[in-house]
Amino acid sequence: MSKTKCGKQIEAPLPSKRVVPSASFTTTGIDFATPVNIRCLKMIDTAYIAVFTYVTTRAFRIELLSDRTTDKFLLALQ
Question: Which InterPro entries would you find in this protein's record (predicted)?
């Protein structure tokens, strides 16, 4: 068997905007989905889905809210 040499990948330089260090959750997007019907025992209730997207880390989080009041929204942030 003959041994072949490993190739080297030449990477293009990244734009300066993409290599600037920043905190993990500085840019965040928040969106509400349409109301969904959920069933708890025999009762049917309406709930809301909040989607949090974190741009720097490309992470996202989904929270289920019982209503769209400020108090419930602030609790979802924790």
Answer: RNaseH_sf
